[in-house]
Structure formats: C-alpha cells, structure tokens
Amino acid sequence: MVDSLYYLPNDIGVSALDCGKAFRLLSPQEKKYAHYLSRAAWYGGLAVLLQTSPESADIFVMLQRIFRKQTPSTLAQVATAAGLSSEEYQAFLVYTAGLYANMGNYKSFGDTKFIPNLPKDKLEALVKASQAFEEQPAEMEALWNSCSCLLYSLEDKQKQLGLGDKGITTYFSGNCCLEDAELAQKFLDSKVNFCHHSTFEMTNSCFRTQAYAANENQRKMLEEYCRSFTLGSVEAHKKGSSYWIKDKGPIVESYIGFIESYRDPFGSRGEFEGFVAVVNKAMSEHFAKLVSSAEVFLPELPWPREFEKDTFLKPDFTSLDVLTFAGSGIPAGINIPNYDDIRQSEGFKNVSLGNVLSVAYATKKEKLTFLEEDDKDLFVKLNGPSFEVQVGLHELLGHGSGKLFVSSWYRGSETWDSKFSTIASSYEECRAECVGLYLCLKKNVLSIFGHEGEDADNVVYINWLSMVRAGLLGLEFYTPESKSWRQAHMQARFVILRVLLEAGEGLVGLEEVTGQDGKPDARITMDRSKIHTVGKGAIHRFLCKLQVLKSTADVEGGRALYDFYSTVSDTGTQNFLRLRETVLLRKEARKMFVQANTKVNGDSVELVEYEGSAAGLICSFTERFQDDAEQLDADLLDMSKRDAPCW
C-alpha cells in the first residue's frame, strides 16, 4: 500500500469554476481581450511543467496524446479490455486531472509528489492499448520509457520538492546545495538588471491582445510584457507592472509573468502564472470601502509610525470571477506586484477571487475535523463570510502595510526575498494573516462587510477558530525527516497556532482524544471571551516583532523567531509529531478546479464550459491546446531534453 500522502483519492473534490454570467456581460471587445490574454496565460503556464520536475513535461505530453485520440468515456472501454477495474481507471483519470491542475506531478499546495493509485503494470497496459500508442508505437514507447520510472518513484529525495538532498527542484541543477544557492544569489544581487525569465511561445497572443485593449495603459502594459517574454527582461516586466497599476478599475483584470517565489527552494525566483478575470461589481463595493478606510485602520496596527509607509498609495481592490488561472494552483486572493521598489513608490493592486472562494471554502458538516460539535454548525455557516473578511484584510492591510528601510538596512539590489530567502514567503504570509486577525476585531471593519452585532461577534470567533484549526491542519505539510515545511501559508498558520497556545489563560485548547471510530483524534477549543484580551495582546506583541525585524532586514533575529515557532517536536505540552499522524489520518484532499475555455467563432467569442469532474478537467485541457498540439508537444519535449543533463 502506498502512503495516502502520495496519491490523490478517487473521491477527491472536483468543481467547475462558474464564470458564465460574468463573461456573457462583457462587450465583444472585452471578450476578445479576455480570450487572447487567456491564450497567452495558458501557453505560458506550460512553463510550470519545466519548473516543477524533470519528468513533468514528458508525462504531460504522453497524457495529452492519449486523450486527444480518445475521450475519457471512450478510453474506459479500452481500460476494461486491458484488465483495469473501474476503480483503477478512475484512479488514472484522477491522476491525469491532478497533473493538469497542478501543472506537474507535485502538489502545488504542499509540494509533495503524487503518483497514480494503480499498479504500474496496469497503467502500462492501458498506455499500450490506447489508440495513441497504436498509431505512434515508437514515439509512445519512448515517452513511456522516458518517464515511467520517475512517474512512480518514491525514493526519499523524490517525495517532495526541495534543494540538495532534501528534495527535487528544477530551479537549480541536481548537484546544487544551499551554499551554492546563496553564492548564486550574491552574484545575481551584484547584477542589478539580472534576468531570470524564460521565454515561451506565448507572445503572439499578447501581441494580438493589444488590438482589443481598452486604454493606453493596457496597450503599454502589454507592449512591455511582450518585450519581457521575448528578451527575458525583468526591467520590462517591472515597467509593464507599473502600467498595470495605473490601469484602475478595468472590467477585465489580468496579470501575467513569473510572479510567486514559493516553490523556489531558495525563495527568490518566480514561478509562472497568468490570470484573466471579470470584476464582480457588487462584491467589489465592500473592498472599495475597505480601501477608502485604510488610512483609518493602518495607524491601529501595533508597530511604531516610523515603520509604516510614508504615504498609503490607495490600490485597486476588486472581487473577481476567474475566467482563466494558469499555473500550478489557484489562490483565494492576490496582492501584486511583488517588486518591493514598485510597491513602495507606485503602489499595488489587491484582488479577491470570488468564484474560487465560494467553491473552495464551502464546507460540509460531516467532513469537519477537530472541532467541538457545538462549533460545527456556526463554522459551516460563517467560514465563507469570515474568510472573505480575512482575505480582504490579509491582502490590503497585511501585504499592503509596513515599510522596508531600503536606504539603510537593505543595501544595493537586496530585496525582502533575497535577504530572508528560505523563510521570506512564509514569514510574510504569517505577518499578513496576523494583520487580518488583529484588525477583524474592529467593529467598523466588520460593518464594511455587512456584519453587525451578534453576527459580527460570531464572524470574529469563526475567523480566529478557523485560523487555529488551519494551524493544526498545517502539520500535513511538515516533513519530519528533513525538518522542513512544504507550504508557506500552512507553516504561517501553524506559527500562529503556537503563538496563541503560548498566550495561555485558556484562550486555545488542543487535546488528543479518541474518535468515535476508535482511532486517534484531536479537539480544538477557543474561549471566545478572551479573544479581545488575551488573543489580541498575543498577536499585538508578535506582529510588532515581525514588522520591526522585516523593516530592519534583521535576518538573524527574524530567522530565530520564526524557526522557534515553526518547530514541530514531540516534547512540550503538545506532542505535535504525534498530532501530525492524526492529521494525516483524517486529512481531506484539496479540491481541483475545472476552468472554461474561450473560442473565437467568426466575430464573436464563445465560452466552452465543462462538468466538474476529473473527466471534465481532462477534456478542458485536451481542447485547450488542440490547435497546434503536435508542435507544442515537440517544443515541450525538446526543452525537457535540453534540461536533462542538469539533473
């Protein structure tokens, strides 16, 4: 039996992202703008295969060839004839959907490898019985041989992404260790205009998009993006990002490039992502009110005034319905761009992805773990609304607050990411989460989101309880063997759990119990009467430390603080290593999303939607790249082959 951590269960949640209503309200010009931007995003997103693992691109091409020739329903008959049970064939569909959804064979949320939950000989039999294999036996045999071993391998190093002997990465060559990464970073820091972007066959769609831009800022933004992707220029992408910030309140919002550094084991280089979304005007009104009140709320944060930005540059903050999100995963909210100098001098934008939130955080009572029965009904009712408040505060006043002393402590081309490297992403997520917890205690914040009186008190309680529960769930993303965390947000939430447990006075309770099934379980409790006193005080003190250490580039102090609260051990009041086993025993797989495609039909653009299932997700991907499929296969395989000597 393979450890369930390393495969996706057959009953994994798969949901379609609904954007039909929002898309149909667009004008013909806006639909074409959205279409060509989406094409650029999807083609660029294929770069993530090469950024994830040495074998991901080969697996992707093999699966694409199989399903281009036979739909999931047609292939089911082949699978039966090849000796697969219905459960084994479903496991194959789930694996394929998972590879597409994560753009590689490592989970985007947690960075652990996942393999097919069926025997290797059964999968080989299916591959060789497929129509794709019958028509191109030599090519398909070569593809199978190139990836089949790594596709199933669970050697220790290959179980997760990481640097050196801690895991697999394609951000560095196979013989690189942390010291090599530090040396490379020092060299790159000395070259102010260094380039880390790869070029990809996506610029044609960016060029075509320009004809449908709504204004000059969008045209200049796209022009700089094209220059960036053609030349590999970071400076061009930064200029494009500046124009993007100036493009206030567009109906069709987007961002594209090598953005988040979560998966670089050194925490500096960006992974590709591109999104296209349509503004949800009703929900955006809440966020607009939050933005207009930001200058009232910022002084409420616990650090001295000198540690806050001189001027708060009011950003766009909109709720969006995602049409396209290409990359390794889809977040609930985004605060971008990530260039510190632009953020401090020109500002940033915040977006909350409404149709993602409504699906991802819908909770069924029977699947809720680690809570008291008395809390479950309220949690089901208010988890979504409370998370909406948390996302708003996290993105706008979390990531949007605080100052870096760039002329005194940050030197030359040093940035937050390059300076704090391996802890930078999680540390910053923790700071933003703490800001959300702290400011949600303000009644005038809650009233912006329509919460008053008892309802407001309940939203605060569920928000804090949800954060503590998330901290416990975060243990799934800790690897004891390497004593490392594989997911920035979940590490951040565990740190917050530790801080609130340390506060004492009965604020948070966490005990190990035996479940009704006779297996190990755990129970979380929170004394809601102490949130505004004990809880607020603990977050106040911790948040102040986080900001001062960040502002002054105190890497040594910041790492000592963050590593202390990130420690997972079997000593102390809580045996977190044993609790981790309980969390793994009762974990629920993260949902996957099926996204629509757009298609030009004469002068109009059509939206093509798919069912929320593994088969629907597969169909969406095979149809997404059918126009130039053979050339795309060849390009991916060529790039994968050229990189191969590095591993």
Automatic annotation (TrEMBL):
Zn(2+) binds at residues 394, 399, 429. It is found in: Cytoplasm. Keywords: Acetylation, Aminopeptidase, Cytoplasm, Hydrolase, Metal-binding, Metalloprotease, Protease, Zinc. GO terms for molecular function: aminopeptidase activity; dipeptidyl-peptidase activity; metalloexopeptidase activity; zinc ion binding. It catalyses: Release of an N-terminal dipeptide from a peptide comprising four or more residues, with broad specificity. Also acts on dipeptidyl 2-naphthylamides. Binds 1 zinc ion per subunit. It is an enzyme of class 3 (hydrolase). The keyword Hydrolase applies. One of its GO terms (cellular component) is cytoplasm. One of its GO terms (biological process) is proteolysis. Its cofactor is Zn(2+). Its EC number is 3.4.14.4. Pfam families: Peptidase_M49. The keyword Transmembrane helix does not apply. The active site is at 395. It comes from the Eukaryota. Belongs to the peptidase M49 family. This is Dipeptidyl peptidase 3. It comes from Scophthalmus maximus.
